[in-house]
Amino acid sequence: MRAAIIACSIFFRSKAYRYGELLATWHRYGLSQEQSVEVEGRCVLLGDHTHVVKDGGRMPGVVSLRETSETQRKPSYFRGQCWGAVGLVVGSVGACFCLPLELRIHQGFRHIGLDEPHDKHHCLSLAERVVQMALAFARGQDRPAWLVLDAFFSTAGVFRLARSVYSIALKQPYLHILVKAKKNYVAYFPAPPKAPHRRGPQPFYGDKVQLMECFDHPHLFHTVTCRVYGHLEAVQLMSVPLLWKPLGDWLLFICAITSRGPIVLMSSDLRLSGRNEARATLGKGLAVSAFPLYVPV
User: pLDDT tens, 153-167?
Assistant: First the structure.
């Protein structure tokens, strides 16, 4: 056993290979199998964080963490490592699996010999670091992708970072975001044209919309038959593009009524069709219980 541990430690510290090249080779191999699930010509990526309990006193990257997930049986505060993970949805639409692409430690950089930038404008948040991993995959493989995330990632910085990398050849961003919105989020209709005699600039934001109040208007929804966690059921959907003030731009808000309750999704792709709204969420149900598994039939 001791000999095996020494051999593994020598392999991971070897300078005979480079981590970036090894990672790119693994990405190419995963795509070369042609088993990835695609939605509107984009492969589907899943991203999330996981907290791993570590009791070692001198282990690298061990920090004090707070667990807020309702699906984890961990204490509220503990010592451990915070890992960011990105995976590729492979298989078929009816039976899909998550193929791990990359895992990185996202906290405790000083413990592993790295320093974070002191400038807050260049210091990425935990949510943005997962998006950066997905962008590296999409750019490295020249492959547009969806990134499906839970409500923790519903921040303006996530959408800005995803839109910052644009493919000239594909004439579209490399990465589109589909994320669950929080229940207290609001959006805005565009402001009506300003009266000619009124002073001041043209207002940008119009009437405010409480997203959860959209479910009080059932006549605006249409019914789609979907497979939710392996069972067929009728899901009511409604999508509307609205202005989101934290981002200062348009987003597509998708309201869905399922057997597990109402949820609101946010998409950076305003052209997402009504039938494919559900399909783009298919992978997250395998990784995070906050997202049901929607597969139209």
Answer: 999 999 999 999 988
List 43's β-bridge partners, or say none: 38, 145
Least reliable range by pLDDT among 37-46, 71-80, 101-110? 71-80
How many domains does the chain fold into? Answer: 1
Q: CA 256: distance to chain centroid?
A: 18
Closest by CA position to 105, among listed 86, 81, 89, 124 = 81
Whether 46 is in a domain gets the answer yes
Q: Does some domain include residue 1?
A: no
Beta strands in 54-183 (DSSP E): 63-66, 77-91, 96-105, 145-149, 166-167, 172-173, 175-180
Residue 71 placed within a domain: yes
Supply the range of the domain harboring residue 274: 20-193+202-287
Q: Residue 1: its pLDDT value, please?
A: 52
Q: What is the CATH number of the domain that holds 133?
A: 3.90.350
246-255: average pLDDT: 93
- Give the integer Cα–Cα distance in Å for 149 and 48: 7
Q: How confident is the model at residue 291 (pLDDT cuts 50, 70, 90)?
A: very low
- Alpha-carbon gap, residue 242 to 250, rounded angstroms: 6
The distance of Cα 204 from the centroid of its chain, to the nearest Å, equals: 28
Could you give phi then psi for residue 92, rounded to 5 degrees? -120, 170
